[in-house]
Amino acid sequence: MNNIKKNFGKRVKYFREQNNLTQEQLAEKLEMNCRSLSFIECGTNFVSADTLENLCKILKVNPKQLFDFDYSMLTPIDIEKAIYDLINTNKDKLNEIYKIIYLYLNVI
Fold it and tell me: What is the pLDDT of residues 6-64, one digit of tens each?
């Protein structure tokens, strides 16, 4: 469960920053204290269903985007390498390549 909380927290932080929100601003919008949000972003605490729903509205994402950990934490260089490796090692993995590109385009 710790990996899920940590990865989820990284995604929350990523989308918070994409929306140009500070922790204080997001915490205020969520009607929680900043320390609680910090614990969520660090992966110490997890969100309730109500908080998840509010996070999605405020950050303008769907829950899947917050829980999509497979390729979401890769840098553009990591993504490029992953695509290159997939193409060169297994042509049957084109569906996986599509998912990587799709996620990359939706995150950027």
Answer: 889 989 998 999 999 999 999 999 999 999 999 999 999 999 999 999 999 999 999 99
Domain hosting 31: range is 2-67
Amino acid at 68: D
87 vs 107: CA distance, rounded Å: 22
- The CB-based long-range contact list for 75-81 (8 Å cut-off, 24+ gap) reads 76/104, 79/104
Q: Are residue 57 and residue 12 in the same domain, yes or no?
A: yes
